[in-house]
Write a structure and sequence with these properties.
Elements (H helix, E strand, L loop, with lengths): L11 E4 L4 E4 L7 E4 L7 E4 L3 E8 L5 E11 L10 E3 L5 E4 L6 E4 L7 E4 L3 E8 L5 E10 L11 E4 L4 E4 L6 E4 L7 E4 L3 E8 L5 E11 L10 E4 L4 E4 L6 E4 L7 E4 L3 E8 L5 E11 L7 E2 L4 E4 L6 E6 L7 E7 L4 E8 L3 E5 L6 E9 L2 E9 L1
Parallel strand pairs: 1-6, 7-12, 13-18, 19-24, 25-32
Antiparallel strand pairs: 2-4, 3-5, 5-6, 8-10, 9-11, 11-12, 14-16, 15-17, 17-18, 20-22, 21-23, 23-24, 26-27, 27-30, 28-29, 28-31, 31-32
Amino acid sequence: SPFCEVALGDDVVTCAPAQLELNVADQGFAQADWSTGDTMLSIAATQTGAFSVLATTAFGCVSRDTVQLAINERPVVDLGPNAGLCAQQTRMLDAGNSGSNYVWSNAFSTQVILVNAPGNYVVTVTNSNGCTASDVIVITSLATPVINLGADQNLCEGEALTLNSGFPGAATIWSTGATSPSINVTATGTYTVQVTLITGCSDVDTVQVNVNPNPVVDLGADTTLCEGLTLTLDAGNANSAYVWSNGATTQTIEATTSDLYEVTVTNAFGCSASNDVAVSVVVCVGTEELALQDQVKVFPNPTGGKLFVQMDELLSAPAHLSVFNTAGQLVRTQQSITNQQTEVDLSAMPKGLYLLRLQSGVQVATFRVAVQ
């Protein structure tokens, strides 16, 4: 009888998790014997396989049918836990399931993508069975230090340069081994610093420091010169820049007058050094000049004002003292030096450098004195 024909429907292919409801009660059957061993009028099929039923109506009419159920596994997609991203950092996201089809929220269609910006990244994966699965990962921005030690630097001997990472309180390590936010450098070298914030993000910068030599300038010892003679002062350090106290800009000058001659030399590295020499021009008898330098002591030097001139023995000729400033101007005289030790009071003089000249006949001694 057409009224006694059970129908379980077409075979079903689906993706897990799946459940197929099989029911013969709504087809007028009063009894069912299923291949699963169940005897209920309806069952739920949740596994791949063939499901058969022998259905019987209340009038004893019997009918049989079978349906095939195929449940295919979905891909397992795991992009990992949400993560933070440091500036300039790239993160690889892998959807797995090689050989599948991929649709990313940023329009990529590969298994693996690289991301370098914050955002929500979603991927949907479809495997060869046509089953799909999705996952999402949230990428946030993490605070990242930006280190700038500046341009490479050139120093002169004796100078120091402070290098500052700019992030006090952060974990810092310098190529010197220091862990402070800043360091002072005085030697040629390449200096590198790495700073790491509490976020775990870090940055590195490097600067080259070159320490260049200063010129060596030596004009020689203070000199007493007979009137009419010339003394050549040579600052050395060829091909440098020169500035003399008399306005000259040459390597050498000719000294013919009493003065304190000073020169500043700047070499090709831009490093400078200075030196000075006191030149005293005196009237000499004939061509002889007898110096008293070894017979006379001047102390204390530097002085706070009171100065003593002590001679090893009394001079045979009358002696007098003259004091000049660095401009060559006479600022004090003291005649009739007759004692072996004479006090000279410079307390009224401004602080600075002075030339003290002792002359006895044709004998001359010149001393440089500093008043503090």
